[in-house]
Amino acid sequence: MTDTALALFLDFDGTLVDIAPRPDQVVVPAELPAALATLRGRLGGALAIVTGRPIATIDGFLAPERFDVGGLHGVEMRRGDRVAGCEPSAHPTLRAGVARLQDQTAPLEAVLIEDKGCSVAVHWRLATPTDARKAQDAVERLAADLGSAYRLQLGKAVGEILPATATKGHAIRAFQEDAPYAGRRAVFFGDDLTDEKAFATVNADGGVSVRIGGGETIAQHRLAQPEDVRDLILRWAGGAPVDPEALPRA
Question: What single DSSP character describes residue 248?
């Protein structure tokens, strides 16, 4: 399998970087952005970050490099200089729901509301079990009230409400409609429940799926932790064969 036969798609939190207690506390190793840029060159440009984070947040973490990004699970898309953004004013019921959610969770210690404009995430990683349950109940109630235009996505100590049409699988397929991704075999690395649907899409399309960490998965391959992903990127960027099929089976 040649480098130019592959299109590499990478989740961010829990895949490229270790999960942090708060979303703004993740640490990006200094060598990672340049290694990703070098690897992108080997792949003829076919490398993208596919994440629940906004594009602007990814740019901040990976500066000074700038990558193609499917942000907010594909609500935002950037391919080269082409950007399809998200307009919060197009989601008035969600915006009202975010305000309600902030009021409901304000008494809960260590519960964080991450307002992304066109989606909202509630984090309870640092909360007590009681407050975590209350936070999850609140986001589940709001998702039910918003109806079919939105969906609730549960992950590791987080619940996120986003437009129903936004999934990482859809984002990957959208990238593959155009050069340099078109006609290549998709390779997707992810770590969470939110990534399992993308694994299903990649598997169905004949690609390669790689789960980071433990737990049940439909991914074909597995690495133990984000450090293993970073080591792999450094090796690939340094000239080692880009062969995801050689990774350990899940």
Answer: P
Does the active-site annotation cover 145? no
| Model confidence pLDDT, tens digit, residues 32-82 | 999 999 999 999 999 999 999 999 999 999 999 999 999 999 999 999 999
Q: 158-182 burial by CB neighbour count: b if 16+ within 10 A, else e?
A: bbbbbbeebbbbbbbbbbbeeebbe
CA separation for the pair 150, 205 (Å, rounded): 26
Task: Please check whether residue 208 is in contact with residue 7, taking contact to mean a CB–CB distance below 8 angstroms.
Answer: no
pTM: 0.88
Of residues 3, 11, 131, 145, which has the active-site annotation? 11
Per run of 10 residues, the mean pLDDT along the chain (length 250 residues) is 83 95 91 98 97 94 97 93 88 94 93 90 94 96 94 89 91 96 97 92 98 96 98 97 96
Domains of the chain listed by start with CATH number:
3-75+166-246 (3.40.50.1000), 88-163 (3.30.70)
